[in-house]
Specification:
Strand content of chain A: 5-15%
Oligomer: heterodimer
CATH architecture of the largest domain in chain B: Orthogonal Bundle
Distance between the termini of chain A: 47 Å
Helix content of chain B: 55-70%
Structural class of chain A: alpha+beta
Shape of chain A: globular
Largest sheet of chain A: 6 strands, antiparallel
Radius of gyration of chain A: 29 Å
Largest interface: A-B, 80 and 65 residues
Number of domains of chain B: 3
CATH topology of the largest domain in chain B: Helicase, Ruva Protein, domain 3
CATH class of the largest domain in chain B: Mainly Alpha
Helix content of chain A: 55-70%
Distance between the termini of chain B: 30 Å
Structural class of chain B: mainly alpha
Shape of chain B: elongated
Chain lengths: 690, 179
């Protein structure tokens, strides 16, 4: 199987090279047969990489310990669930996984547009193939997952060695979310290749009209949605597995995933300026380019070991390849833009400073400031070491100090921006849209303050969250009221009707509401509490309204790990509320210890208990309890964001007028004068999708 | 805004900007008052355990796990336990936060600090994220000013509008209420 996999990868590489060269030749010659053959080669890459992936999975499931990659990331006792996920546990496999997801996107993009945009698609195909060539080069010649273990016998003859057992999967990855988190994140990273390909293609081919920007926006939204899910799942994984009580540590790898998400968000907003007003074309094209480049940069940071990270599972000296690839992409983008910059001339100018356009400009400015701050903080240790020759660290205090004010300003714009009119906003409209939300938000802040809410950022976040929520609510309410009064339907069904008539707009509002929930959840962090205590049997620990009683310690074992487990009873106001079972595991194959956190989650707070092992001082088990308010809102907000994104991707329902079939009438009726009812009857309203 | 731009600013818009400015000013005042009241209501001397926790968030664990000291929960970590103990001892001795942090820098180097030290080249780390948005804002302002100037000049010149452009404008204004 390893030979089949290797050959499949090699053929995929050749097919990608053909798709690239054929695509360029097709752009020059415009021969239909060449266009078709280059496209087919691009689509064939998907089939070949799929075969390679299937081979590697087969090797994992058959415990083939003659394969270096299988030995490094699996063992016999590893549950099948994790054997499947071991594909992306290390450098070689995750690069193969990247290539595979990219090939899925490429196949999808080429197949969906096989009969559309004949001027654009050869460029798109060539760009996608160019990116695939890079990753397939790594898969074939730099980090092949099909490397066999070699051993020499007593005569010095080299042959394939086969071990009886593997080293096992990194224990940090043995958590159910790891099966879904990396694929989601990678779908985000790789997904941004498609809008990049369309943007570059439109620029190189000087594709007329704004159609390309519509295509780019939809693909960006898909990738952005996956990236959002990936980031949130990653945060949840960090929360549930790493056991330090938090979900975001501003680790370089976390930051790497956030960077393209931020620029992608900026693009999804500024693209509306181009669609509506023909403005910000250069900006939009560069946002797409930069988003893709940040995906590559993020991958490089994760794998090169340039910056140290708790999440970097696949460090190696592969960084040079990525730097070279980044340089090539940048030069190609720069040359394409310089040669065709007149193509990107703006159609319109800004009419008013108080308008939707200016809010988008601000939104983009703030998002880019956030992106810069995160990138700067991530790379500054490298820069500082290069200049001063001494190592420094940039950690959460720096990122929080810089990014919290930026994020709060963004939250403010989330409420203000969508309610400003295009071109110019009147004073009456401002007053009508903002007076109530602002008044209620300030009132909510005052009430919270009176009740002892003293954390400044959390208070500002609360005020802004109420403000944004109300502006969104009024937007739905006003629109639904018009529909309800016209159609005679109830308000709830009118909300559904309103949403389905303009999915993009109202899906966007739902995304904004999801972000508000996430902000509220993050603001809860200001009120975190934690207590650590060495606890013997019968000892208690108090945190917030809870008292934790240590009832038992026992050992649990299976073929994969041995575990020490605490049995804790949680009381609230003297009443027993729940049992928690935090664990401390030792994974047998890798001999790596890990904690398994026990979390009791509610919308108000999480009780998060970690069994940290036996204390070196007392010999007693050390229990660390955290009380984290509102964390659940983050995960729930994430679900709302994903639903909103899905809704925004759906086509609008359009109201249409359809004639009711005319009833058969007798000759006598036909000549009789028409009654008023007969005049009104023939027309009814029905709905259809675009 | 420069004087040359003022004639292009309609009175109603100027009024709106003033209203917006007042709203923003009011919001800023609220935040400021909130911050002052927080500063006044907070006890001057926090409990030593709170201080210890705060300091443990200002340092990285020296074991190389890349976690903050207060977040390092590696079982049997040979560094975090001793480092946390040292913070408690120093606090008990009456050392200030700066002195405690400096003692860690002397022992482990500057990389133990969770934030770059605010001196020499490393000042740029703090300055750049503040300076960059200001520069970007200035560039944005310039771009907007030029756009508006160009739009005003084009409007004053009374350039003829082609039928195609007119049709597109009608089409776009029809879609304008979508988003």
């Amino acid at each position: 199987m390893d030979i089949v996999g290797s050959f499949a990868l090699l053929l995929a590489f050749l097919a990608a090279v053909y798709a690239f060269a054929g695509g360029i030749a097709a752009v020059i010659t415009r021969k239909p047969l060449l266009i078709k053959s280059a496209r087919n080669a691009g689509m064939a890459v998907f089939g070949l990489i799929t075969l390679a992936v299937a081979c590697l999975e087969y090797l994992f499931f058959t415990d083939n310990f003659s394969m270096a990659y299988v030995v490094a990331h699996s063992n016999r006792a590893l549950p099948p669930f994790y054997k499947f996920a071991a594909l992306w546990a290390g450098q070689e496999g995750s690069l193969l996984f990247w290539s595979w997801l990219l090939s899925i996107y490429a196949f999808w993009a080429l197949f969906l547009n096989r009969k559309k945009h004949p001027e654009l698609m050869p460029y798109v195909g060539a760009t996608l193939a160019g990116v695939q060539i890079f990753f397939l080069t790594l898969n074939n010649f730099v980090a092949t997952p099909f490397k066999v273990l070699a051993g020499a016998d007593s005569n010095g003859l080299v042959h394939v060695a086969r071990l009886s057992e593997g080293s096992g999967l990194n224990p940090l990855l043995q958590y159910y979310e790891m099966v879904i988190h990396p694929p989601m994140l990678y779908l985000g990273y790789t997904g941004f290749t498609v809008p990049f390909a369309f943007a570059l293609a439109a620029l190189l081919g000087r594709y007329p009209g704004e159609k390309w920007i519509h295509i780019t926006r939809r693909w960006t939204m898909v990738a952005w949605g996956f990236q959002t899910v990936g980031i949130l799942l990653g945060a949840h994984w960090a929360y549930a597995v790493l056991g330090w009580g938090g979900y975001w540590a501003w680790d370089p790898v976390e930051n790497a995933s956030l960077l393209p998400w931020i620029t992608g968000t900026a693009f999804l907003h500024s693209v509306m300026m181009q669609e509506k007003r023909g403005m910000m074309k250069v900006w939009n094209v560069w946002l797409v380019f930069v988003t893709f480049m940040l995906c590559i940069l993020g991958t490089m940071l994760t794998r090169s070991g340039v910056v140290s990270s708790v999440h970097a599972f696949a460090e190696s000296s592969i960084g040079g390849w990525f730097v070279g690839f980044l340089a090539i992409i940048f030069l190609v983008c720069l040359a394409a833009w310089y040669k065709n910059r007149d193509y990107l001339r703006s159609d319109n100018q800004l009419d008013s400073l108080v308008s939707r356009e200016s809010s988008f400009l601000f939104n983009n400015l703030v998002l880019l400031a956030a992106c810069f701050a995160v990138l700067w903080g991530t790379l500054f240790p490298v820069l500082s070491e290069w200049v001063t020759h001494s190592k420094i660290s940039v950690g959460p205090p720096f990122f929080n100090k810089v990014n919290i004010p930026i994020a709060l300003f963004l939250l403010f714009l989330t409420g203000v921006g969508p309610l400003l009119a295009w071109r110019k906003t009147s004073f009456d409209s401002l007053r009508r849209n903002f007076a109530w939300p602002l008044a209620v938000a300030v009132l909510a802040g005052a009430v919270a303050f009176a009740f002892g809410f003293r954390e400044v950022y959390a208070l500002v976040c609360l005020i802004l969250s109420v403000f944004v929520t109300l502006t969104i609510f009024f937007e739905f309410f006003r629109g639904a009221r018009v529909i309800a009064s016209r159609d005679g339907s109830n308000l709830l069904s009118a909300v559904g009707e309103l949403t389905m008539r303009n999915t993009r707009r109202y899906g966007g509002y739902i995304v904004h509401f999801g972000m508000v929930l996430i902000f509220i959840g993050i603001a809860g962090q200001a009120f975190n509490k934690d207590v650590q205590k060495d606890m013997g049997l019968g000892d208690t620990l108090s945190i917030g309204p809870f008292t934790i009683l240590c009832q038992n310690f026992d050992d649990v074992a299976n073929a994969n790990y041995e575990s020490e487990r605490a049995t804790l009873e949680v009381f609230r106001n003297g009443h027993s509320e729940m049992m928690l079972y935090p664990e401390h595991r030792l994974y047998l194959a890798s001999q790596v210890p890990e904690t398994m956190v026990a979390i009791e989650s509610s919308p108000l707070r999480d009780l998060y208990v970690v069994y940290e092992g036996r204390s070196p001082d007392t010999g007693k088990p050390s229990i660390h309890a955290h009380l984290n308010p509102l964390v659940k809102w983050i995960w729930f907000g994430g679900i709302v964001v994903v639903l909103g994104t899905g809704l925004a991707l759906m086509p609008n329902r359009r109201t249409a007028l359809v004639l009711r079939p005319v009833e058969q009438r007798s000759w006598g009726d036909a000549i009789a004068p028409e009654s008023p009812a007969a005049v009104r009857a023939p027309i009814r309203r029905t709905d259809s999708h675009e | 805004m420069s004087d040359s731009d003022r004639p292009f600013l309609p009175e109603t818009e100027g009024c709106m900007i003033r209203v917006f400015g007042r709203l923003l000013g009011g919001a800023a005042l609220c935040v400021l008052l909130g911050a002052m009241s927080v500063a006044l209501t907070r006890p001057a001397h926090a409990q030593s355990t709170d201080r210890a926790k705060h300091l443990s968030q200002e340092l990285f664990c020296a074991c190389g796990c890349t976690e903050l000291l207060g977040a390092c929960n590696h079982v049997g970590c040979t560094y975090s336990h001793a480092m946390l103990q040292k913070i408690d001892e120093r606090i008990a001795r009456g050392d200030s936060d700066d002195v405690i942090l400096q003692s860690f820098v002397q022992e482990y180097g500057e990389k133990v600090l969770a934030e770059p030290p605010n001196k020499g080249f490393n000042r740029i780390a703090v300055i750049a994220p503040i300076l960059a948005p200001i520069v970007a804002l200035f560039i944005l302002w310039e771009v907007v000013r030029r756009w508006r100037h160009r739009a005003a000049v084009a409007g004053a010149g009374g350039a003829p509008v082609s039928p195609e452009l007119l049709a597109r404008a009608r089409n776009e204004s029809g879609k304008g209420s979508d988003e």
